[in-house]
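We were asked to recover a plausible sequence for a given structure. The inputs and outputs are reproduced exactly as logged, with field labels preserved.

PROBLEM: sequence recovery
POSITIONS: 292
GIVEN STRUCTURE:
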């Protein structure tokens, strides 16, 4: 069953072009059209202002050759405060160097575009879409694997594909029907698959994916809980708070103080080890009772 256009990866709602030459800013703006809002800024302080005010975003930076350019120190400081923001670097003729590109890749760049012969619109859109969805999902999946390895176990094979796809789409409401489409199954077939293998329901898996993505952002001290709720498509911050409480038995602030990702991963391991398959009240409010 093919995915509908509604399930295709969206572009980030906001693109922040930091110190990008005007010609490249124009190329990116033409490529995304009305699908993304493009903001051009020149300083790290301006970038942080946009990061705090924006949701669903990607940062685009040039590969600067001069290692003493203020950009480098500002970029390092920004990555320390916002380590999970996806970043695309653009190599510019006469401005960039291979050494600078390598240095940026070591400082948290998701993708590199070569603008020496111009940027094609399809290349820009593909890079933005892939970077935005994959960067966060891959980071969280790696943390899941590491958490299970510390428990001297492995994430259940039957759930691996479902969790990976849930993570890629966890920045928005993820009902069982959409997860089933992502798995190229009918919803009833996916539910039966989980039941026969004594796995958590699709709603619970999608809910864990949403919680883990939220936990990643909760650990970024530069973000408020209101901005995280908006980023993940919750109707209110109260809806985010209720899901966090039901999965972790903690408030968002308590979860942040305790180490949001570490606590969430530990509870996920415990939930799967105990084999809990209890059905949630709805897609966002599971009845799992997971006490630390």
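RECOVERED SEQUENCE:
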């Amino acid at each position: 069953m093919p995915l509908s256009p509604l399930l295709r990866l969206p572009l980030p709602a906001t693109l922040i072009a930091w110190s990008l030459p005007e010609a490249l800013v124009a190329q990116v703006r033409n490529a995304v059209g009305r699908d993304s809002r493009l903001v051009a800024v020149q300083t790290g302080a301006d970038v942080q202002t946009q990061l705090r005010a924006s949701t669903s975003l990607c940062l685009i930076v040039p590969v600067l050759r001069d290692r003493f350019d203020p950009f480098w120190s500002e970029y390092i400081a920004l990555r320390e405060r916002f380590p999970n923001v996806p970043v695309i670097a653009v190599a510019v003729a006469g401005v960039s160097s291979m050494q600078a590109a390598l240095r940026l890749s070591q400082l948290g760049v998701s993708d590199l575009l070569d603008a020496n012969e111009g940027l094609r619109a399809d290349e820009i859109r593909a890079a933005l879409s892939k970077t935005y969805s994959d960067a966060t999902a891959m980071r969280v999946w790696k943390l899941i694997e590491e958490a299970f390895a510390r428990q001297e176990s492995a994430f259940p094979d039957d759930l691996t594909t479902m969790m990976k796809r849930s993570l890629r789409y966890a920045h928005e409401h993820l009902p069982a029907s959409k997860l089933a489409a992502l798995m190229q199954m009918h919803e009833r077939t996916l539910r039966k698959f989980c039941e026969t293998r004594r796995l958590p329901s699709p709603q619970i898996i999608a809910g864990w994916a949403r919680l883990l993505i939220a936990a990643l952002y909760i650990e970024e001290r530069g973000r408020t809980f209101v901005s995280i709720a908006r980023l993940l498509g919750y109707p209110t911050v109260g809806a985010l708070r209720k899901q966090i409480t039901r999965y972790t038995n903690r408030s968002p602030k308590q979860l942040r103080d305790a180490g949001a990702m570490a606590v969430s991963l530990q509870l996920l391991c415990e939930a799967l080890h105990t084999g809990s398959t209890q059905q949630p009240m709805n897609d966002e409010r599971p009845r799992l009772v997971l006490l630390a």
